[in-house]
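Z., the sequence and structure:
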Amino acid sequence: MDKRFSFFRKLFAKPAGTQKSARGTADAEVNSNSSAAAELMQKNKLLQVQSEKLNDITWLVSHKVRGPVASILGLSRLFNRENYADPDNAKILDGIYSAANELDIVIKELVAKADRTSP
């Protein structure tokens, strides 16, 4: 061994017992990659479950909420504003009241689903 380079080898050499073999480094990388992959799979599964729950909420909003709102809007257009004593107005108000109660039930269901969806 050339004496000129032995000085640099000693200078840059790692202390005894701290040197890793190539195999040890590769094993550490595999273990690190395996745990990262497992964590990624777990997070992916959680996202899929939350996505399904959000799809359920979206369906509730687009179908169950929309029905009572459409009923209220339609009934309010039929209401005779020029003659409040019109006998049909009582039926219309009953329909509006019924649709509003239905909407209240759906909103409570929606809030309960949203609470169960949050992590």
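The first helix runs from residue 3 to 12. The radius of gyration is 35 Å.

Let me know what you think.
H.
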